[in-house]
Amino acid sequence: MILRLRSATEMIAREYRRQRVLIVCHSVVVLCMRYILEHPTETELLAIDKNADIPNCSVPLYEHDEALGPRGLLRLKLFNFVAPLEEAGAPVTSTPDVNVGAR
Description:
The protein has 4 helices and 2 strands; from the N terminus they run αααββα. The chain is of the alpha+beta class. The chain has one domain (2-94).
């Protein structure tokens, strides 16, 4: 999955340079994208997954930050952002990971 996502992000960077891009995906892909964009260790990524379920329709937001290198990089600005749902009065829901050992 990571290889396919890397390929997709490279294509997006090449084809949509300097444009805003919206990617819609499920929670596992959100975490994989964080791995690609932020370069956390496996331990750090597993801690993110353990400490916060990703609510349905939540938004992670990245912004270009020139301070992160000669060409700039993306910096995580928001994670699990659900304010638009709350403002609309919609319930914020999430489905926790299935505990495989409980089956």
